[in-house]
Amino acid sequence: MVLDLGIKSNINPEFVQEALGLLQQIHNGLLELPNNYSPGKMRTLVRVAQLIKDVSAQVDLADIQNLAYRLEKIFRLLSLENQIIDANITALLIEANENLGLLLIAQIQGKTDDAVNLLAKTDSVFANLETRNYQQPIAANSLPKLNVEPGLSHLVDTAEVTQALNNLEMILAQSEADNLVEKLKLAANVFLSFGDRLKITEFVAIAQVAIASLENSPKAAPTIGRIALAGWRTAYEGISKPVISSNGKSINSAIAIVKPNSDRSNQPKTLKTSQLFVWTASGNIFTINSNNVKEILVAQADQLIYSQQQWFLHWQGKIIPTYGVSQLLNAENLPPEKTQPEPIFIISLGQQIIALQPQIQSLIAELELPIQPVPASVKLPSYVYGLTTWKDKPLQVIDLAALLSETVAQNPDISANANLFNPTDTATANRESTVLIVDDSNSVRHLISMTLQKVGYKILHAQDGQEAIAQLQQNSQVQLVICDVEMPNMNGFEFLSYRLKEQFLSTIPVVMLSSCTTNNHRLLAMQLGATTYFTKPYIEQEFLAAIKLIIEHKG
Hints:
With 555 residues, this protein is α/β, with parallel strands linked by helices. The protein has helices spanning 13-32, 39-58, 62-78, 87-108, 112-134, 153-174, 177-198, 201-216, 221-240, 325-330, 400-410, 423-429, 442-453, 465-474, 492-501, 503-506, 519-527, 540-554, and strands spanning 269-272, 276-281, 284-289, 293-298, 304-307, 310-315, 318-324, 343-349, 352-357, 362-363, 368-371, 384-390, 393-399, 434-438, 458-462, 478-483, 510-514, 532-535. The strands form four sheets. Strands 4-8-9-7-6-5 form a six-stranded mixed sheet. Strands 10-2-3-13-12 form a five-stranded mixed sheet. A five-stranded parallel sheet has the order 15-14-16-17-18, sandwiched between helices. The radius of gyration is 26 Å and the shape is globular. It starts with 12 loop residues before the first helix and ends with a helix. The model is unreliable at 1-9, 133-156, 242-258 and 416-429 (pLDDT under 50).
């Protein structure tokens, strides 16, 4: 059933149904809290609030986005161990959630007066909740225990944060893989509480990214932990160690963040890094604001697709362009040759979502980077801050957000904010597209055929590589091949090798679909010219989205 809410013309009805459904999930979860509380349940509510925040941002409902973010922060604090959630807090949470829903409906219906009144009422409830929530005791086993004299609270904060940073460094050095994720989640929650208590927004932003990334990509835990540690350390040093000038006065507040290539005078500049992730790669130093990084992950083989010299990533139902930092500078985006999966940053640039392979060689946790003056005759790109000396070498310091924005602007045909895949809309466009399915299993061929035929594709079949070649020679209209790896007579790798030698076959994209899940199989397939590699069982929506994208690019 679809609700008729009198929605404004500029609001997608699907957004309304999704947002109200998410609010209902929160309501149901809150009803269970008094008798069935657990940190895991609270983290589920955190993720739901995040979704509301994200979908609200997509339709420019700033008030809803802001309140959802505040609700997310409250849920994060309540997800810490040993929190006490009584009936009063539960009632306030339910009231806040209900008011958020009423405000959403008022705004999408264009009822300005009602929205203003509801916003004031909702803000009051949230303020009450935030005050109560910040006064909740932090779990005794979540923070370092320090015995300090009364009246030295500022030293307590310093000691606690310093000890937490040192503890995290030890965790990363000593923890086994099986418990590293949980230890890092606990550490991230500690820094989240520090951020809220000490009003350090960078702590909060990095903690949120770390927690979401650990939940979605636990295999990337070591990388996530190292990046988070560098970010927290730099942010903390930025507020605890003011820079002292030659006359003995603090000059932290007077140092402005340098804009890329904005001032070419001969005076040295300083780039403050307290809000930045900073690392070296490809003979350069790259920087990105921590608030722009939504998630850090290690992609599975079936999440990546290489089509028409461009990488794409399946992420949260979307297909988003993927770049490596070296390829950004060299105007190339070639398949990787490394045998180990690379971490990927999910970066938000306004309405654009982009995946980035940072290719980190070393992380930089310096409080600031001195930017050396460059002669006016030297032409630097607009995304370069300038030069700095790192380990006795002059390196360019690059604003990655500016570089990505420039790259996207130069490639308007590559969507940087792909929409959710819609099989219904795709069926009509696929009626003239023919796909060859190559697999020695009749049942697998039948299942894949059903998946593709229901969205309009024409299907041809082959039991092995030899039959596939014969089919392709007889049917020039084939636009895509889906191929297994392990088959008799001619296996998938042998088929790919043969295809490379035949000009009329080499232009037809091949999607590998196999039960072989090792990274070596995927890399070999990509080196032999496969467009992407899916493992069985596949996620139908992502599989169809990849096929649609490949055929569109081929066309």
